[in-house]
Amino acid sequence: MRKDHYSLLSSLLHNHHSNRRSIQQIHAHLVTTTATCHPPPPTTLWTTILRHYSLGYSPKEALLLYKHHLHPITLFHGDSFTYAFAIKSCANSELPFSGSQLHSIVFKTGFQSHVYVQTALVNMYVVCGCLWECRKVFDEMPLRNLVTWNVLVTGLAKRGEVTLARAFFDVMPVKNVVSWSGMIDGYTRVNQPKEAVSLFRRMVALACNYNKPTEITVLALYPAIWNLGSLELCQCVHAYGEKNGFYTTDIRVTNALIDVYARCGSVHSALRVFELIPSDEKNLVSWTSIITVFAMHGMAKEAVDSFKRMEEVGMKPNRVTFLSILSACSHGGLVEEGLVFFKKMVNESCIVPDIKHYGCLIDMLARAGRLEDAEKMALEVPKNMANDVIWRTLLGACSYYDNVEMGKRITSRIFEMERRYSGDYVLLSNIFSGVGDYVDSENVRRRMDQMDVCKLPGCSSI
């Protein structure tokens, strides 16, 4: 096979690097011709295919490709990029054993001091949770660059090892926006919002060209803001984003801001942010966010109106949008509207309901006192997704409406799934006592004691 043919294949790989089918066709062509061609395909061709697989939906394919083309007949010798992408495939597949095998090969082939390959090993070990191996590789590296440090710090932070991550973060020779954002994200993941906010403030104070907060930093910070419930802090970050143009360059930041304002209790601010988004830039997430805001605050009519506006501009709802509108109807008592939305989801949008959709519908019917309809709907939930939460929702409604017979039926179904939850016994006992049947109420309590089911005592954070 001539070299100009390899050049053509290389060009095709470059032009279709994101097209999985094209990559597979070129891969198949190489596999069928490698055994008979001379000279053999250059390493760069195999490495390009390896890269595509390692970063794609099926990273294990990269590992299979690597194993196959290490066969001596192929005359394929890997370079640093080959090993880096092969190791990356182990990280994305979470295969630490295969990664450790590659580690051994890397050592034997002389890449134990190569910064890119060693950084890939650090990443693989930390992603797979092998922290001791990760530290060992990092400590033994003769040369580390900024990427190496970031891989270690952000990897540890994502795994919840924020104390260790912060220790490395504080001694980094140089930090950039990835370092700061990764550490802030780590604090929000482990529910330490004050530390996340404090680090963000320090980042802003020390900001320069290479570590100035970006849209990604703000997105990482948002969960900390809503955990603190600080409207003032939300407004400050909003103003910072406005000043730096975040809301004109990334719609994700704007959509997330709507949610943050809602969680901080300001529906007005959330709505104002939504309305300021240009009509041609509003996407499905934008509409779903504002519908969720209204649902969260019991404003069912406004949620329904927003849903209709969304449809008028030609936006098609997805399963999350329908879940939000069903939740709004449930909490707002709009039963008939909720049933219409559920039918629209199934019949018009052809979306198969999941357990959350069924749960909203059953809760909506139960809240309205339509217990028979709620029970009928619960019985229609596919067995592979039915759970005790659905039936407990209905049991709570039985307690509220003093429906003894249905309460007994539902409790029997719950006991088929779970017998050790004290709340089920308490609710059934309350149902009996609510209609004056204190004998059966006491029998349920006695049965609870016989089953050695403990009722957790109530507590207050005040």
Can you give a write-up of this model?
Helix content is 72%, strand content 0%. By secondary structure, it is mostly helical. The longest helix is centred in the N-terminal third of the chain and has 15 residues.
Please outline the helices and strands.
Blueprint: H1 3-15, H2 20-34, H3 43-55, H4 60-68, H5 80-93, H6 96-108, H7 115-127, H8 131-140, H9 146-158, H10 162-170, H11 177-189, H12 193-205, H13 215-228, H14 231-243, H15 246-249, H16 251-263, H17 267-276, H18 284-296, H19 300-312, H20 319-332, H21 335-348, H22 355-367, H23 371-380, H24 388-401, H25 404-417, H26 422-434, H27 438-450
Q: What portion of residues is helical? A: over 70%
By helix and strand content, what is the structural category? mainly alpha
Please tell me how large the radius of gyration is.
29 Å
- Please state the average pLDDT score: 87
Tally of separate helices? 27
Strand content: under 5%
Largest sheet: none
Helix-strand pattern, N to C?
HHHHHHHHHHHHHHHHHHHHHHHHHHH
Number of strands: 0
- Unreliable spans: 71-75
How would the global form be characterised? globular
- How far apart are the termini? 78 Å
